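step: validate -> pass
step: tokenize input -> pass
step: predict -> running
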Amino acid sequence: MEDEMTAPETRYVPHELVTQILLRLPVESLVRFTCVCKTWQDTITGESFQREHLGFQEPCVLIAPQIGGGDSLKVTTPGLYRWEKSQCAATLVQAMDSLPAVEANRRHNLAHCDGLVLVVSRDDTVWVLNPATHQALSLPQSYSTLIPPRYPFLGAFGLGHNPRSNTYKVARIYYHSVDTRGTGGCRFTFRAEVFIIGRDQHWRQTTTPPPYPIIARRTATFFKGSLLWTIDESIMRVGGDVAVRGFLRFNLTDESFSITPAPPGCPDLGYSTFNLAEMCGELYLAHEGPKEEGSFRCRSVSIWACNDVDGSNPPRWVRRHVINVPHCIHLIATSKEGILFQDGSYNIMCSDRQSIEGVRHVATMHDLTYHHPDSNTYVNYPKEIVYSYDLIPYVPSMLPV
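step: predict -> pass
step: emit ->
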């Protein structure tokens, strides 16, 4: 009788085991589980847990359709859609239809770092988003002196992680002033600003200005504690030959600038002829090969890789692939199956050494359906209304903004 009245024993699960289980859950579940108890909340919102959680998340792709409006020169971005190769539908993770339309030639590329996404609007307002947690941070306006309005927007941004301080920085390089009195054309001066997420209240100018101009509206590539922008050779040619060729490297720890040379097989780094990306801990570069005789089209694209840009020694670039496509490609991600890339405006392709052309088709973006999880509705973006698609690699995270 005594045994029947005894309450069942409560089983104890060590918190270390609970933590290991939580690390393997998606962000959506973790957001809800912060309400279970204070212990779970403290664990899930801790910096060490959030960084370790990143390593358990499967990488995917964010698709941002650029929809043409009534004015064909302007485009809007309705949202960021998460997509995986095994899916025929992309799911909306961040609505962006409240952002104003942007002139197509002034549109700034998106950037991603550890689940955070950098978005630049028409008036150079900077947003840092976490699509998984639906957090958004609007950075303050910069009050730096800019070049006269008659010149187009000529700056570029970047987002990266400073491993020493475990902080995330947004950096901005811009053309500060222009001198048209010289005989060799316009001469620009350059400045750089930094904003530390979670610490700064305003932009702070770097002690050392950028030594060279960079290609406008093209986000920096984050790689091992540094941001890499492409040096603008067209401006470097004003008044003489190009003195330096490659990438302007900004060290996020000491905020110093240096030069990372391009591979020896890339004599020209024009805006439309290359793509730089960090993939699986290496820096990749896609560059056009030789042109067809009597044509502006290239015969192939070479893909180079290196694993270090730090130190005084130049990076050791190795050519990994040659893909038979007639134009340059936009690198997205790499896996055991090959290199995933955007071919043209609408197609997602993958390198395949077994095929004759060295590539295989994965998906056509305007043929995908785009799912809105709140309303459980689907929409298609036919090519007739889409100006282009922005694609960036993405890993869901719990990191705050």
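step: describe -> The CA atoms of residues 301 and 393 lie 21 Å apart.
step: cleanup -> pass
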